[in-house]
């Protein structure tokens, strides 16, 4: 099972994914998205992970 929420404010988009996979899946997703974001957009993003949750904060320029 996977659920997600997207929140937008003046500074960023926050994308939160809740899953029932495991901590390794959170780490994998964190690695892939962080690398793609940095390589394509040339910016860093904030990432927070737990065993069942990963949160990406994409800044708005």
Describe this structure in words.
This protein has one helix at 23-41, and strands spanning 2-8, 12-19, 46-49, 53-59. It has one domain (2-59). It is flat. The protein has one helix and four strands, in the order ββαββ. The mean pLDDT is 89. By secondary structure, the protein is an alpha+beta fold. Strands 1-2-4-3 form a four-stranded antiparallel β-sheet, covered by helices on one side. 31% of the residues lie in helices and 43% in strands. The termini are far apart.
Features:
61 residues; 31% helix
Count of discrete alpha- or pi-helical segments spanning 4 or more residues: 1
C-alpha-based Rg, rounded: 12 Å
Span from first to last CA? 33 Å
Would you list the SSEs in sequence order as H and E?
EEHEE
Low-confidence stretches: none
Specify the structural class. alpha+beta
**Total domain units:** 1
Helix content: 25-40%
For the largest sheet, list the strands in their spatial order. Answer: 1-2-4-3
